[in-house]
């Protein structure tokens, strides 16, 4: 067993400073120095997981191999580190309380009064240490969601205080991410909000060891000196994090600022050899110097909030870079699409992706878009609901099954080509009850998906309740739709395609969750290539 060291990342002043990206960038730097590292996110909300949250609230729900519905930051962790995360990497207050209350009901507390301290804080500490059991890690980075000063963050800060003390100074480091606002009228950067948020942390007994300062302008030595003085750190522990064009620049930026260096020094770990970012920088070089551009439409109903499709837009960046293609995404609201305007909205696009989703809002627009795409030979990738809508479109317009639908949208449809899975029929709880996580799929040789993956057996992550209705299988295949991938055990349809179309592929699973910087997803690669070829 290794002597695992811990890094805690807290946030001050405002939310949305990019704690997840800073944590992932630090982890990347440590990883390419040869340390084994993983990252965890603790979310101070009462939902058990973000699975039941509206994407407008919290962005995309990210799904792990083991079927956990998690915060979108876990997507960044996987994309940066190229290693899978699991349920243990994301814990919410809801889950913490649920475990403690379950124990209380079992009588595990032997008649004691159950309290925030020590019982909730003990459970938080247990969850932090538990992650160490999922692998042999040198360093575990734990990101505390929310902002210091929030009532709901207090038990987490207290748990960090206790852990630091239990682990000893050499085994734990606290990084505080903060904002240095710029007042245009005064032409000045302001440190006061940071001083206050550090003071607030200190009142809870936690001294930040490192300050990472988000800023729109270089902060300079004067401000660093001032922050160091007021916040009880050395000047070298004040790290500037200036705005960059792409999140993938942040590891280099943090390296230049010495973040990994100061963290390793405090943890008494070797600072040589230097990080080897060769592969990472090769990805960046291609990403920034594309030879071609493709215009791809993304049809979805949450397009106002692009975080709702984070993994998809990142997967396009990975795939695009691998082919030296700049993917220019056009966000199209599915509710804005009609029979009349589908042509004007989609004309000129080199390809269209129809996004995952739930519920009836905007689905008719998606179906209209797919009809136009299919009839006009525009490359198409349909993900989950996007695939289901492609099946419905084909049923209505090729098979002539009027009013064909998914029973999610129309319970009484005469042609339920997409239907609730048998095991889903008696489920009433909404949280964590979908078909979730990694499932096997067998691909048929000679198909577009087989060509993309170049292998027969794949495993991909799922998050849905409805499925292709196999009662209609014959009708579809006879009319020219190819069922190119099925689950080998359940025979459920996983992928569909139309062979006499330049590129028309729908998948019931979510390929976007598995795309990383170093492993662009084969389906996204095949799709952007097809978009370029048919351009
Ligand atoms: N709403 C559909 C289902 O539950 C699709 C889900 C999705 O796109 N993730 O089957």
Automatic annotation (TrEMBL):
Residues 5-269 form the CTP synthase N-terminal domain. L-glutamine binds at residues 56, 357, 385-388, 408, 465. It comes from Aureibaculum algae. UTP binds at residues 15, 190-195, 226. This is CTP synthase. Homotetramer. One of its GO terms (cellular component) is cytoophidium. CTP binds at residues 15, 150-152, 190-195, 226. The active site is at residues 384, 510, 512. Pfam families: CTP_synth_N (PF06418), GATase (PF00117). Residues 1-269 are annotated as: Amidoligase domain. One of its GO terms (molecular function) is metal ion binding. Catalyzes the ATP-dependent amination of UTP to CTP with either L-glutamine or ammonia as the source of nitrogen. Regulates intracellular CTP levels through interactions with the four ribonucleotide triphosphates. It catalyses: UTP + L-glutamine + ATP + H2O = CTP + L-glutamate + ADP + phosphate + 2 H(+); L-glutamine + H2O = L-glutamate + NH4(+); UTP + NH4(+) + ATP = CTP + ADP + phosphate + 2 H(+). Belongs to the CTP synthase family. The gene is pyrG. Allosterically activated by GTP, when glutamine is the substrate; GTP has no effect on the reaction when ammonia is the substrate. The allosteric effector GTP functions by stabilizing the protein conformation that binds the tetrahedral intermediate(s) formed during glutamine hydrolysis. Inhibited by the product CTP, via allosteric rather than competitive inhibition.
């Amino acid at each position: 067993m290794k002597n695992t060291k811990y890094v805690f990342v807290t946030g001050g002043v405002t939310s949305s400073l990019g704690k997840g990206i800073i944590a992932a960038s630090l982890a990347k730097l440590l990883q390419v120095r040869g340390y084994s590292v993983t990252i965890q996110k603790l979310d101070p909300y009462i939902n058990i997981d973000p699975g039941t949250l509206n994407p407008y609230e919290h962005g995309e729900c990210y799904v792990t191999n083991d079927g956990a519905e998690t915060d979108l930051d876990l997507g960044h962790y996987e994309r940066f580190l190229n290693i899978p995360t699991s349920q243990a990497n994301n814990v919410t207050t809801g889950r913490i309380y649920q475990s403690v209350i379950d124990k209380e009901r079992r009588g595990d507390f032997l008649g004691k009064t159950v309290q925030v301290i020590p019982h909730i804080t003990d459970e938080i500490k247990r969850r932090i240490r538990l992650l160490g059991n999922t692998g042999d890690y040198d360093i575990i980075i734990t990101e505390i969601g929310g902002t210091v000063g929030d009532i709901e963050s207090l038990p987490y800060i207290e748990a960090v205080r206790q852990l630091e003390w239990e682990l000893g100074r050499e085994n734990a480091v606290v990084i505080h991410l903060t904002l240095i606002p710029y007042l245009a009228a005064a032409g000045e950067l302001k440190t006061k909000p940071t001083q206050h948020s550090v003071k607030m942390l200190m009142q809870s007994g936690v001294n930040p060891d490192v300050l990472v300062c988000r800023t729109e302008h270089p902060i300079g030595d004067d401000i660093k000196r001032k922050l160091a003085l007021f916040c009880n750190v050395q000047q070298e522990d004040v790290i500037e994090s200036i705005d960059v064009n792409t999140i993938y620049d942040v590891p280099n930026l943090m390296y230049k600022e010495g973040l990994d260096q100061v963290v390793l020094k405090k943890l008494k770990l070797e600072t040589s050899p230097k990080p080897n970012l060769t592969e990472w920088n090769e990805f960046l070089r291609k990403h920034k110097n594309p030879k071609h551009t493709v215009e791809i439409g993304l049809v979805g109903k949450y397009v106002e909030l692009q975080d709702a499709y984070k993994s998809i837009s990142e997967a396009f960046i990975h795939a695009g870079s691998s082919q030296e293609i700049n993917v220019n995404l056009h966000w199209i609201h599915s509710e804005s699409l009609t029979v009349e305007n589908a042509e004007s909205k989609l004309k000129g696009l080199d390809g269209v992706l129809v996004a995952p989703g739930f519920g009836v809002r905007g689905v008719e627009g998606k179906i209209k878009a797919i009809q136009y795409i299919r009839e006009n030979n525009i490359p198409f990738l349909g993900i989950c609901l996007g695939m289901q809508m492609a099946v419905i479109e084909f049923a209505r317009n090729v098979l002539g099954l009027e009013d064909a639908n998914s029973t999610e949208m129309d319970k009484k449809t005469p042609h339920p080509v997409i239907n609730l899975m048998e095991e889903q029929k008696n489920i009433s709880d909404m949280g964590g009850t979908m078909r979730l996580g990694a499932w096997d799929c067998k691909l048929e040789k000679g198909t577009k998906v087989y060509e993309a993956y170049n292998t027969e057996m794949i495993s991909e992550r799922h998050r849905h309740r409805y499925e292709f209705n196999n009662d209609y299988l014959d009708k579809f295949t006879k009319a020219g739709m190819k069922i190119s991938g099925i689950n080998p055990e359940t025979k459920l349809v996983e992928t569909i395609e139309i062979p006499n179309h330049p590129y028309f592929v729908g998948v019931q699973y979510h390929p976007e969750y598995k795309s990383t910087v170093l492993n662009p997803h084969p389906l996204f690669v095949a799709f952007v290539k097809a978009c370029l070829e048919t351009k």
